[in-house]
Please model this.
Amino acid sequence: MASITKREGKKGTSYKVTIRMKGYPTQTETFKKLTDAKRWSVDTESAISQGKHFKTIEAKKHTLSDLVDRYIKSELPKKPKSEDKQKAQLEWWKNQIGYKTLLDITTPVLVECKELLLEGTTYRGTIRSGATANRYMAALSHVFTKASTEWGWMETNPLSKVSREKESQGRVRFLSDDERTRLLEACKNSRNQQLYLIVMLAISTGARHGEIMGLTWDDVSFDQRRLILKDTKNGETRAVPLVGEACGILKEYSKVRRIDTNLVFPRIGVKGNQSISVRVAWDNAIVNAKIDNFHFHDLRHTCASYLAMNNASLAEIAEVLGHKTLQMVKRYAHLSEQHTLSVVERMNLKIFGN
Model:
């Protein structure tokens, strides 16, 4: 309960408020006006009852820089795949408003920062997309969630009220038959002898670059004709079929293995678990094949697009790519529909004629 004591001193009258509630430390504050003292006592008792008061005190004591530094030290090491990228994103927030106390980090402040994000440029010199701005906000949002739910530094997550930017369905760039022929020929002629096999695996399995480069021989089963992908984006292990030419090339490649590492694609001249880099070889192959606007990740889109054009369902494509929902594979639906149309047309022509 709150008690208010009136005091007369050299500087005039003051009112000391003392709040004692079972299970909580005593809170005191002094005011010049009785009305202020009464208001503070009511608000503070209510905040303590609702579990908000001490979070407010902590929010006054810590800056955003303090919060981000704690998160980078204690939480980011648990996310090695995204650690570097998220650290850079969080450092951006520190540079903008790191000096502010957490109590001063309000929704309007964050909206202004979002506008700065959208006006800024990437390291390539291009304007940040809405999707990129969303990734920056998502990184900070998780920090605020930790601060409010586990660390007791904030009452709520102020970013929860900031709207996210609309994102497109995503890029769908896949190889035409002619482009595929030219690219594979360029890969065969590359000085990097593993490039052709790596690209074949990407096209035939839909595996990501990191998933392929992280393969060990224990992950390869020629008997069961499958690859086990462990270093996946969502952290879950999945199996993909190993068939066709990619299987044959990998089987031939397996006949001569390094004995100092179990990696399928180890870095040449380096012992241990360091995979080779194909960035330069890939860039050269793209130039030599005269293919524009195509990235290594687009090989994954190529696999999915080919599956769609060969009448695979969205659920089947999601299974191959390792997506938990169909949302990410809906971008390939139009390809499946275009090729299904010709099948239905042939059926109707056979049954009903012209």
Summary: Residues 2-50 form one domain. The chain has a mean pLDDT of 83. The chain is about 50% helix and 10% strand. The first strand starts at residue 2 and ends at 9.
